Every structure is written in structure tokens, then in C-alpha cells.
Amino acid sequence: MRIWTGRAGSGKTTAILREIAALSEKGEGRQILLVPELNSHLMERRLAAATHNHGARTAEVLTFSRLADRVFSEVGGLAQQMLTPAGQLLTLQEAARRVQSGLSAWKGLADKPELLQEALRLIDECKTCAVAPETLFAAAEESEDAVLSEKLSDLAQILTAYERLCEESLPDPRDRLTHLRDRLAESHTLDGAAVYLDGFLGFTAQESAVVDAMLAAGVPLSAAVTCDTDYPEIFLTGCKTVQKLTRMAKHHNQTVERIELGESKVARPAGLAALERESLLPVRTPQESADGVRLYEAASPFDECEHAASYIRRKVRDEGARCRDFVVAARDIEPYSAFLAMAMARYDIPVFLAEKPDLLSRPPMALVTNALEAVRNHFRYEDLFSCLKTGLAGLDWDEIDKLENYVLTWNIRGGAWEREWTEHPDGYGLSIDENAKAQLAELNTLRKRAIAPFSALRGALAGEQPAGDCVRALYAFLLAVDAPQRMIDRAAGHEQAGRLQLADEYRQLWEILVSAMEQFAWVCGDMPLTLDRFAQLFRLVLGEYDVGTIPVSLDRVTCGNIERACTENAKYVILLGVNDGLIPKTPSSTSLLSDMDRDKMDALGVELKAYGEERLLMEQETLYRALACPTDELLLTYHTIDAGGGETRPSYFVNTVRELLPDVPFSTHRTETVRDRLQAERPAVELACAYLSGDRTAAVRAAYDYYKDDERVKNAQAQRRGRGPLSSPHTIDGLYGKSLNLTASRVDTFYSCRFAFFMQYGLKAKPRRVAKFDALSTGTFIHYVLEHALDALGKCEGGAAHADQPTVRKACREAVRQYVAEELGGLENKTARFQYLFRRLVRAVEQILDNVIEELRVSDFAPIDYELDFSRSGDLPPVQCEDGDVSVSLSGKVDRVDGYIKNGRLYLRVMDYKSGKKSFSLSDIWYGLNMQLIIYLYALQQEGLDRYRARLTAELNEIVPAGVLYVPVRDELPDTARDTDEEGLRILRDKALRRSGLLSDDMSLLEAMEHGLEGDGRFIPVSIKTRKGEDEPTLAAKSAVADLAKFGRLARYTQKKLLEMGQALRNGSIEADPRKTDRSYCEWCDFRAACRFDETAGDKVRWLKNIKDKEFWEQLGGDDNAEVDT
């Protein structure tokens, strides 16, 4: 046996390839280059190059797996079906179930899916390290540690049962090398062949046994091992491998020739060469040159990836490098995968991620696992829509969105999926019109399509079913949703979009699913399984698979773990995550066997994989692979804040580099991030746009100067000039209609924020609402009860004012009963909490109704209209305002109109029930808010005479405004002390329910509204005072009153604000101009996410200064309506 040793790049592989090429050229014998799986493709290319593509006649590259295939094809066994990863897990589960009565430490393992995977990894260790059950039984007997003895006994029993099951069904693929060792002597595969071992860091016990069998068969063996015997603590595995090969050769009486090639022969810059040579040594000599090494301190893992992308762009542009010249490596690449993909895409760099994706996160696997969870959890929203949103469950995205909106609105769960949906799509309190019926018809069609496959799956998996039947039911589900064809279509879509690696992955996923189901049925057979158990096991089974990928083109950056990515020299290596705990990686052991257990097992002669301190020493070898990989430059990066926001420290190795290379170039994100973004078009354009936000740093200015004529920058600049105005009359007509039909809520929204109006009433966007009895529903309920109860009481003899208390209660309860039947569909299916809260609300509305009735009993004003509708098909036409080309109409409903007839005049006051805490404010009206009562009052004056002549008396001569009032109808009760009596409660309640608004200053009218006015009115917002020496009472200054002239000016001002709104809409105004008093309108705006308010882009807040009533009337003046200084 010959063993070449030396550091990476010392010429070991070159020596082997030259020898093979020379022998091949002479035609002497056969040569087999045996390499690890990861190196096979690379070594095939290198062998072809070394032999000038003529070596295939006598030389070939094999792996242990390919060698097994070659031998088994000759002696038999090649076609034998093997357990897949799914089969291994299921076989282990069945093995644990069979011996569970004899287990001690791991009792119940078969029923703990979370531990089965750990146990499978332990079985894998036993197989790889050639640890037989007999060895474990013997160690259990010998151990003085009772707990460890139980663990070893349990492991031995499980392993014995596992191997017996494999003999009964399908063999474990991890036994292939053991079978190869046993049958190698029967084969002529290696006759006349010389075998060269290269690329192995070390050999497992199984691989060592195969090598030993080769030696026993007299096969000439040569090996190349990366190690430096002067420093075994750095090259621990390599030195152990040399010792093991030497022992095996001597055991077979073979001589061993050691060929020491010493240090690396690769030409590297001085600093990089010193790093490979000395950085891991216990004693280091500081170097004058740091050429070939760079350090970078990043803010975050994403910043590391972005700097790596920028670094690659610079090298490609400035030095003519190719993407294939770069390797981006990390000790664990998985946390970096998403960041790398994003950063490389931003910088237009093609990459190959040499990592195994998490299959369970892929849509086809999520379809299966979430489908099983959905039927387990009675069609729970999260599970069902996670399944539907894979896009593979039979519905398109628009259909899924429609279903999801309804399901969230009405909290659809369980059996509700299989019943007809009849509730209004927009929630409580809405009548089912033709549009709602059409929506419900469409939704029910989608519901049936969506739920049918899930219902069938649930039925097929009900109770306990044989495992084979469970698998067949799952397969039927996949066919029912047409998953196979959808996966084919998606793969084609990824390929067409240039996502070749993802397309290749999708093509493998269906095969994996089918394989998992076949293995499940094969291994579990007729085993009875509940739905819960099947779902748990099948999820575990899928988790054991992975997808293999290869680069889809040659000129790509390779990214991966150090072990996978650093298998050959690359010009440039970027090592990410040189942080404490990451490099070197903190070792961790399986949860079933602790490091202490393994230490004791070593003493008992049971040797598994390296652990603890030895594993930490092996980390040095892993780091060495990264250091020896680059030939031109090594960039080391670390981050100060991790992805979760926690602080991190650099690895000790960063200080080592600085000590060895004092002049090593060092940069940080503070200086480099902006410069990095100048290296590629997309991030540079983003920098140019930052200039528009006021950033004037040199790099931003440079980006702007270069890209200022770019269409993207121009668009950003146009957006920052302000939103809109919309310039196309056609677009404006499409958004709002040719005629501007307004409502009170639309006017309030416009004067609160024009962009919010555009979103809600132009684009018709609306937030997703959950159907619940919230403040909005409460207000609707109170409105309903007051309207219907007062209407019923008004028909009693003497009207509502003369109804006694029992009659009032009866009318109230009848209105509540009607509402429950019409709007809630009864209370029987409501929760106990809902029923309790609803009963409390009924008590509150009874008190509110009592207060209204008490007011009517002391008033000459009586209700003459409820829910008075101003619209084209309503009681009165909509309010029209015109000025030149601008015309607007205001539609809406008035909660209640009260009237009082005197001397042929009908005095009207408009009443509005307010369930919120809003009170009437002239300041609001100045800013265009809450104007509807004034508008409706004057609309009634102009348009209502005929209506009320017909309804009341033909003797009416005119209608005179008497005022407008907000009636509080909140369901909350005032806070009171425990000892407050009934009269005290009434006073507090009256105070809470006192009206706000604006009334006529005519004392006779005020007396008609509330008889016996003294001091503060109980119901109306006036206060009476009597001056000394005067008999006539007068109105206090705080009274909310105005004369008819002021009412007239107020009406004209509200009409002016409507016309201003109409003109602004016709001009295409959509600015984000949210109002703000003590709170900003943005705080509760539904469209904040779409708006992204930005003052640097022209958006601005309108501060609404509170205007006192006196100032309001002064500024309102005559008809000029002078502006208030705000």
C-alpha cells in the first residue's frame, strides 16, 4: 500500500492522476479512482483532462455506491428493492412497537414521533460504525451505569427487531456496504485493477471494512490523505485515517509506503498562503504581507450576503473573473439560503445553492401534510387554507381569495363547510339583495368544489383503517385535486421563467410523494391506523426525503456548506458567518445519548461517531478546507446582529487572522454598504431614488447623477411630487361615475383624507372584516330597536309620549325579537358569551328608549318620520348642489325627524342617533365634517312641505328649521360609586344621554322642546339663567343656539363645501392629506399599508385647530365665508 500525505494542494491528487494517465497510456491493467459521492463529478472531469479524454478504456471513477452496484450486478442483488428513507422510519416505528413491552429508558418510543427521527439517526450511526446488536447487549451487561445500561439494552432490542423486519420485508440501503464487504471476494470486478482512494477525509467503519476486504483480496491500493503529521490536533481525522490504513495493510502482511508531499504547492498571494500554512498552528509568526485576505464586518447576515454579491460584481467587472471562479461557503448555509438568493438576484449573479432544501416547506408536500391536518382538525381555517394556497388543490388564486374572505368574515369551521352558506358576504346587519344572492351562489359553488376532496378524504380515514387503505385514500385525494398535472404545469412555468433549479426540484417531488406512499403501504401493510397516527407518521416519512440538485449551467457561483462547496480549489472564496459558535461550530449530540453516555460507551468498546472535544477538534479540519480552497483571495465576513436581532461576536479566528496578518484590509458596513450598492443596477437605482428623499451623501449623489434620466428614477420622482392628480377624465368617470353621488360618510372620508376616499370609493378597496357584534353592529342594533319601537309606540293612542312603561317595554322587546330573527338568525347557535353580552345590550337599549320616551313626554315636538330616505328611489329626492359644470348629489337617511306645528308653520328638528362619543361641533363643519344634519334640515325646508301636508295637515304654510340634535345611544353605563341611589343613577344617565347639536334661539321653541326649562336642560343643550332684577329668563352663553339667519349661512356654507369636494374629485385629487387633531386619522385608517404616508414625497398632515363657536360665526360672516386662520 502507498499512502500520499500532505496538506491541501501539496500534489497528492495530481500525483495519482499522473500515474493513472501514464498507466492508461501504456494500456497496463485497469485503474479505479474511488472517491466520495460529492467529488465524483469533479474527479471525472479531472481524470478526463489528465488522460486527454482517452482514459476511459482502462481508468474510471467510482464511489462506494457505484462499486456496490458493479459487484451486485455480477454476483446478484442489484435489482433488489431497498427501503427508502420513508421505509426506514416506518420499519423503525414498527420495530419499536414490537419490543415496546421490553423497553425501559425509551418506553413508548413508537408513539413519540418526535423521538423516532432521533432514534433513526442512532440506528444509522450503529450501521455506519458497524455496531451489532450483540455488541450493544454485551456493553449493557458490562456497564455499571444503570441508566446507560437500560439505554444500551433498549437500543440493542430495537436494532435487533429492526434488522429482523428488514429481513422479512426490504433490506436497509445502509447495509449495502456490509453486503459489499461480504461478497467482494465472489466478484471479478477488481481483478487486475489498481484502486486509488482520494478525497476522503476519513472512512466510516463500513467503508473501512470494504477497504479491508480489498486488501484481503490482494487488490493494489493507494490512498491520498490530507494531513500534516506534525500537527495531528489540526488534522485529527486525516492522521487517524493514515494510522487505520497502515494497520489494515500490516494486518494483511502488506508493506506500506508513505510518500510525504509536505506543504501546499499552490501559488497563492503571500497573506493567503500564510493563512493556510500557519493560522491554525499553536504558534504563529506575524506576516508583513496580507495579500489575498480581506475581513468584513457586516451589520446582519443579509448584509454579509449583499457585500458578497457586490464583491463578486467588482471582481467580474474589474478583473475579468467568471462567476464559476467564486465559492460562497458557510459552516451552515441553511440560515443564509434565503438571504443569498435575494442578494444575488438583486446583483444579477447566477448561483447554485449546494444545499438540500426543506421538502416539507415545498408546496406539494405542504398540500399533503396540511390536507391531513385539515381533516384531523375539522377543517380548521389555518390548515385548510395552507393547503389551498399551495395552488395545487384545484382552485385558482381569485377563487381562494373569495372563499377566504367569507370564511374569515363568518368564522367558518367544521361542519359549516358542508352546509349551504346563507349569511351576507359583508357581515352582520345587511339585507340580502340580488347582488348578495349572486355572491352567495358563487361562493357555495366554490365551497363545494373546495371541500369535496377533503370530505372524501375524511370519510375514507374515519376510525381505524389499514395503512394501505390510508395511503390509497391519500392518493385518491391527490388525483381529485389534479395535483400531478398541476405539478407538471408548475415545473414548466419555473423552467420558462428561467428558474431551472426549482423546475428540476418540482419534477422530483411527485416521484418522492409516490415513493413515500408505496413504502408506507409496503412496510405498514394492514397495520390499523387512526387518522391522527397516520398524519403524524406520514409527515415524519416525508421529512426523511431530500431532493438532489445539480448546477443548471456552468458559469454560476457555488454556494453551500464548507464540506460541500470547498471540494476543489476556487480562485475566490467568501466565508460567511465567521462568528462565535458558528465557526468553529459548537458541537451538539443527539438527545437520546449524551456526550457522557458516549464517553462511557467508548470505554466499553462501543465506538460511534465523533463527539464532544473530538468533534470540536475536527472543526479545525473543516475550517482548514475553507482556508485551503482559494487560490487568489479569501474574504472573511461576520455579522454583529443576528437575524433575530440579538447581538453576536466575531469568532476567535478573526483575531487570529489579525494577529497573523496585522495589515489585513478591514472594512465595515458603515463605510461599504452604500458603495456596495453602486456595483449593480438594481441597488444603484434604489440609491438614486434615495437622493429624492433628501440623502445627499457622495455615493447617493453619484448614483443619482448617473441614473437621473432612468425611467424608474423619473417615475419615483413623479410619485414624490404628490399623488395625482388623476389627469384622465375617462379614469375619473370610471372611478366615481359621471354623476357624483355622495353620502355623509363619503363626505366625511374625503375631508378626513383624500387618498383614503380614493381607495375606498374610487378603487372600492375594503378591509377584510370578521362578522362579529362589534361597535358598528351594536349601533345598527340600537338604531333598529329605536326606530321600530318608537314607530310602534307612535301608533298607540296618544302617541309614544303617552305610552305607559309596560307598553314601552313590550314594544322594545318586540323590536329586539324581530332583529334577532331577521339579522342574527336566532340566538340558539350563538355562544354563551355572545348571549350574555347581547342580554346586557338589551338592558342598555331599554334605558335609552326610556330616556327618549321621557323626553317626548315633556315636549311638544313629536316624531313624524323614521329612517327618512333621501335618494332617487326614496322618500325625498337626493340633495342637489350645482355650480357651473360641477354638480353633486347627497343621498342618505335621517334617523328621525321631529315636528311641532304652530300657527300653520311646521318646525322641524333633525335627530341623529350616535352610538359613538362624537358630539356636534361647528369646528367640524368648518373643515367639511359632520355636515349632513344641516344639509338634510334645509333639504326638508325646501322639499318637505308637500310630504308633510299629505302626512300631517293640508293647512301647513311653511317649514321652519328648529335645529339639529345628536342623540347619544351608547350601550355603556356611567361609572358610579357603590352606594349611588336610583336617583343618582338617573342623573348620571341623563348627563351621558344629553343631546348635542344646534337649536333655534327662539325661547318659545326651546320651551316646546323641553317643558319647564330651568338651569341646564335635561335633554337639550341649552342653559337658562335669570339676571338679578329681571323677570324674563335668558339663554346662557354656553347654550348651543343660533338665529334663522345663522342657520341660513350655515346651510350655504355646507353646500359650498360639497361643491368644493365635487370640484376636487373632478380635478382628480387623490392626495394623502390626513386630518389630525389630538390624534391622526392615519391611526385608524384601513388603508395605511397601501398609502405608506411619506412627507418627503409630498404627503402632508392637515392640523385641524379647534375653532370656538364665537370665532366660527365671526369667520362665517355673511356670504363671503372668510377663511379661518389655521
Automatic annotation (TrEMBL):
<feature type="domain" description="UvrD-like helicase C-terminal">
    <location>
        <begin position="262"/>
        <end position="548"/>
    </location>
</feature>
<keyword id="KW-0540">Nuclease</keyword>
<dbReference type="InterPro" id="IPR038726">
    <property type="entry name" value="PDDEXK_AddAB-type"/>
</dbReference>
<dbReference type="GO" id="GO:0004527">
    <property type="term" value="F:exonuclease activity"/>
</dbReference>
<keyword id="KW-0378">Hydrolase</keyword>
<keyword id="KW-0238">DNA-binding</keyword>
<dbReference type="GO" id="GO:0005524">
    <property type="term" value="F:ATP binding"/>
</dbReference>
<dbReference type="GO" id="GO:0006281">
    <property type="term" value="P:DNA repair"/>
</dbReference>
<keyword id="KW-0547">Nucleotide-binding</keyword>
<keyword id="KW-0227">DNA damage</keyword>
<dbReference type="InterPro" id="IPR014017">
    <property type="entry name" value="DNA_helicase_UvrD-like_C"/>
</dbReference>
<keyword id="KW-0347">Helicase</keyword>
<protein>
    <submittedName>
        <fullName>PD-(D/E)XK nuclease family protein</fullName>
    </submittedName>
</protein>
<dbReference type="InterPro" id="IPR011604">
    <property type="entry name" value="PDDEXK-like_dom_sf"/>
</dbReference>
<dbReference type="Pfam" id="PF21445">
    <property type="entry name" value="ADDB_N"/>
</dbReference>
<keyword id="KW-0067">ATP-binding</keyword>
<keyword id="KW-0269">Exonuclease</keyword>
<dbReference type="GO" id="GO:0004386">
    <property type="term" value="F:helicase activity"/>
</dbReference>
<dbReference type="GO" id="GO:0006310">
    <property type="term" value="P:DNA recombination"/>
</dbReference>
<keyword id="KW-0234">DNA repair</keyword>
<dbReference type="InterPro" id="IPR049035">
    <property type="entry name" value="ADDB_N"/>
</dbReference>
<dbReference type="Pfam" id="PF12705">
    <property type="entry name" value="PDDEXK_1"/>
</dbReference>
<dbReference type="InterPro" id="IPR027417">
    <property type="entry name" value="P-loop_NTPase"/>
</dbReference>
<dbReference type="GO" id="GO:0003677">
    <property type="term" value="F:DNA binding"/>
</dbReference>
